[in-house]
């Protein structure tokens, strides 16, 4: 066994499947009725036999992605997105490995649209982060690992969470520098639910844990690309508003076992209007590394946020929400009277509760606020 194999064994609970696990998972799924039924939901013309045939044709995570995931994303783009605009990806060197840090608006789409965009422009797929809270059964576990996902453990004692963070940091650095693969990770734990994209300082701290005392060098080694995704119509907007309002009123919000899975399906099927993905390499030279570690982490966090806010594409939905909330016509040049009428109807159709409506409007308005700060 090589040193590389030994290291990979250390990360077995985190990393995507190795070749033996891929083969075992493909066979297991070929005999699983729940998986076959799930595939046929998205591909109703496929027979049980065809699903199994497709599985048998796969020999790698990339094969699984191209066979089962890419056509799904292509279909959802055709059915629920008016146009998908990619900006800045051509400035990212295909020969290098990168850590894509993204604002997080949808459980599946943010990384899924990235993989689709990379694939159709000749870039390799990335590995993808997945919170352990999303792995709710054996089928999801196998599908996620076959989709080249690595696990982010979010539950446990403080000591366990610290060790999990160290392990994840070490794995990501190993994947980028030794395995020579790119990775995607969200800027925080869970989706942005109020439209106010913020990078968690804990994420940056985690990334630096595996580096040496040279914080600038440790950050440079990760070759970070900030990926900013903007949706004209926010995926699962009403569900996010309800969750935030429930937390405010009761102090907590408990999801059902398969609630996140339902959100994934709804995010795929819901109308999203126009979508823009903007890529920009993090400019490490613009960050001050002379301060104490805590301040450096804050500076890195702020730089990622600044990049997201600058590259976030504002749609008429954002401008209308801002003007409605602030009782102004400041951005009226970006929309028409009939647009406002349609948008207000959209809000009303989602909820008749004024508090929920206000949260919905706020989620669309906050990107404007961040842009003009």
What does this structure look like?
By secondary structure, this protein is an alpha/beta fold. The chain has two domains: about 5-15 and about 80-315, Glycerol-3-phosphate (1)-acyltransferase; about 320-370, no CATH class. The chain is built from 16 helices and seven strands. It has helices spanning about 5-10, 20-30, 35-40, 50-55, 60-80, 110-120, 140-145, 160-180, 200-210, 215-220, 235-250, 260-270, 295-310, 315-325, 335-350, 355-370, and strands spanning about 80-85, 100, 125-130, 150, 185, 225-230, 275-280. It has a seven-stranded mixed β-sheet with strand order 1-7-6-2-5-3-4, sandwiched between helices. Strand 3, helix 7 and strand 4 form a beta-alpha-beta unit. Helix 2 runs antiparallel to helix 4, helix 5 packs across helix 6 (about 110-120) and helix 8 (about 160-180) crosses helix 9. The radius of gyration is 21 Å and the shape is globular. The mean pLDDT is about 95.
Task: Explain briefly what this protein structure is.
The protein has 373 residues and is an alpha/beta fold. Helices cover 55% and strands 11% of the residues.
Radius of gyration: 21 Å
Number of domains as seen in the coordinates: 2
Secondary structure tally, helices: 16
Category from helices, strands and their pairing: alpha/beta
Helix content: 40-55%
Overall shape: globular
CATH topology grouping of the largest domain: Glycerol-3-phosphate (1)-acyltransferase
Largest sheet: 7 strands, mixed
